[in-house]
Specification:
The protein has 618 residues and is of the alpha+beta class. 37% of the residues lie in helices and 19% in strands. A seven-stranded mixed beta sheet has the order 5-4-8-2-1-11-13.
Length: 618
């Protein structure tokens, strides 16, 4: 389908001008993960007034939506999940008729609101559930400061509907403004214009003038400080770690400038990062203007900041040009991984980015093998079939790293200069629009044919996008730094000696390559030698610790048992939890142990994580 050019319409609506009728708009994409029917009636601007109540773990709010509807539309449909609807008004004062459908597992309920031909706004008065899936309410003990509670949201993929009634599809964009009331000693932040200091009235005003999809709605409330990195970037974090975070992200402005040199102007005004408490389930979430980040990237040596480069890249790939449905998720993540690697290459050199690419290839190969083993081989296609399924099932290395290697293969086949021009024009010409896989391939083929007289063959696209596994000609990264790690491994295998002088300058990536390529079988004595050499069990680097602890489980290295339990209880990032629980459940004794640890750890996890591990361990 063609992308929808409605950014200008959204702007007009945001300032209160008369909305266009749907007859003047192209058809919207129908998303199987949303009850809404945006081709009949869609939202364009949100005015959200909310009060945050930590004692009841609820949000009481009014969502007033400006809408655009076809002339014959009788209703507008919103996605909701576990929301208590008090009332609905049309144009601020007319009581609306509405109905909620029966709840559907994963997807929640459709809220159908009757509208009239001239209806301009729909106001929904509601309250969230204490168990709202997007909301993580943390007690003071679950924060770094231990004094105040904390709240953060995670809306991707279809969790926004659990805290705001919305048309919860990535193809539907809207602008928004809000007024949020919180306890007077806490700071509130959203994916919008943000304060840098606390307002002791507890009332905060926000505005997002660029249109976004619902999965990029975000809110954080807590004891939070701010430090500038540059005039347009900075870091939010709890007071005890804000200095550490600011030091770790010192290259933030360099990343933004480097990204702009590659693919055009940063269009979101401000770029900040907030380091959340440990229960955040992802490495990062690319909420516009404020990336949500895990504290596990605070490695103390700036070695894990490629994650920030990844989330920054989303300001173009994903936030600017968005996958139309979650079956097209690779368009967000494949482009972002490619862009991330280009940013890291620009800042730190080709061999550094090639280490990242090699680690990505290793992870991709493992994912493909795992999906094949568990009879999910169809999910190794880039274009997924997720109808009736939780779109979270598509969040694998396939979207990220197979998507990356597909784009890299075009670059290598036809030249980087051509590909850079293509990407820059792709972002500019499709800015603030939704794109599906078929629209992308049509754009790609037309661009290369028109600009370069180059034909992108259908068989090439089919092999990458609609076929399981990897094509035989998948690019293979080469890293001289990893070759030195391989030589070190061979030397150890041959002599049994480990020379610390040879590893004194290794980065996190070299250590990961080393740990991932250890022999297939290790004795307890060998694990002890390795641990004494690298001090892995006591490592503060979560990436290294995860790979080491996976080996510790596999080879029954009991000196790491206490570290393993502590790590699983106090870390919420699903990327790290999954391989450890997966390794534990391979034996009956290990599964019993995993369940015991999980009972202690579960209260610290976000719904995104518990939704995965409840199924895995039960």
């Amino acid at each position: 389908m063609k992308s929808i050019p409605y950014f200008f319409t959204l702007f007009l609506l945001a300032v209160g001008c008369e909305p266009k009728t749907m007859k003047e708009q192209p058809n919207m994409i129908q998303d199987s993960h949303s009850f809404s029917k945006p081709s009949e009636a869609r939202v364009t601007h949100l005015h959200w007034v909310a009060t945050i109540d930590f004692s009841s773990k609820t949000i009481t709010a009014t969502a007033t939506w400006q809408i655009a509807a076809a002339g014959d539309a009788k209703e507008i449909i919103f996605d909701t999940k576990d929301l208590s609807i008090e009332k609905v008004l049309l144009d601020n004062d007319q009581v609306a008729t509405y109905k909620l459908t029966d709840a559907v597992p994963t997807f929640g309920q459709a809220l159908a609101v009757g509208i009239e031909r001239d209806t301009k706004t729909v106001s929904i008065f509601y309250k969230t559930s204490p168990d709202a899936e997007a909301l993580q309410w943390l007690s003071p003990q679950q924060t770094a400061g231990k004094k105040n509670p904390f709240l953060f949201t995670q809306s991707q993929a279809i969790l926004a509907r659990s805290w705001v009634p919305c048309q919860d599809s990535p193809s539907v964009r809207f602008t928004y403004d809000s007024e949020v009331t919180v306890p007077s000693n806490l700071l509130a932040l959203m994916s919008a214009s943000n304060p840098k200091t606390i307002n002791h009235t507890g009332v905060y005003q926000f505005r997002m003038t660029q249109p976004i999809p619902s999965y990029l709605l975000a809110l954080a409330v807590g004891e939070i400080n701010y430090q500038d990195i540059s005039s347009r970037s900075g870091v939010y974090a709890e007071p005890s770690i804000v200095d550490t975070a600011a030091w770790e992200f010192a290259d933030l402005e360099k990343m933004i400038s480097g990204a702009e040199e590659l693919y055009g102007k940063y269009r979101w005004d401000q770029y900040d990062v907030i380091v959340l408490p440990p229960s955040f389930p992802f490495g990062g979430m690319e909420n516009p203007r404020i990336t949500f980040a895990t504290p596990t990237i605070l490695a103390g040596d700036r070695s894990l900041t490629s994650l920030i480069a990844h989330e920054l890249a989303h300001s173009w790939s994903g936030n600017l040009v968005t996958n139309a449905t979650w079956e097209d998720f690779w368009l967000n993540e494949g482009f972002t991984v490619y862009f991330e690697h280009r940013i890291m290459e620009k800042l730190y050199g080709k061999d550094y980015s090639e280490m990242l690419a090699l680690l990505a290839r290793q992870s991709l190969d493992e994912t493909i093998e795992d999906l094949k083993t568990h009879d999910n081989y169809a999910d190794t296609k880039l274009k997924l079939n997720l109808k009736g399924r939780n779109p979270d099932e598509g969040v694998t290395d396939i979207a990220y790293n197979k998507g990356y290697f597909f784009l890299r293969s075009i670059e290598e086949k036809h030249g980087r200069e051509k590909f850079d021009r293509f990407i820059k024009d792709y972002f500019n010409e499709n800015a603030f629009k939704a794109m599906d896989t078929e629209g992308f391939t049509a754009y790609l083929k037309n661009y290369y044919q028109t600009k370069y007289s180059i034909s992108i063959e259908d068989n090439f696209l089919k092999a990458w996008i609609y076929t399981e596994g990897l094509p035989a000609d998948c690019p293979q990264p080469v890293s001289t730094r990893f070759e030195k790690v391989n030589a070190f491994l061979q030397q150890w295998k041959a002599s049994g000696k480990l020379d610390p002088q040879q590893t004194s300058t290794w980065s996190t990536h070299e250590w990961l390559h080393f740990l991932k390529n250890l022999p297939d079988s290790l004795a307890r004595s060998q694990m002890e030698i390795l641990d004494n050499f690298g001090h892995f069990t006591s490592s503060g680097n979560a990436e290294i610790l995860t790979v080491w602890l996976t080996n510790a489980i596999r080879y029954d290295y009991t000196p790491a048992d206490a570290t393993l339990e502590h790590f699983l209880i106090h870390t919420g990032r699903r990327k790290f939890l999954n391989p450890l629980y997966q390794e534990l459940i391979k034996t009956p004794e290990g599964k019993k142990r995993a369940k015991g640890i999980y009972r202690k750890a579960r209260p610290n996890y976000h719904f995104v994580a518990t939704n995965t591990f409840d199924k895995l361990l039960n």
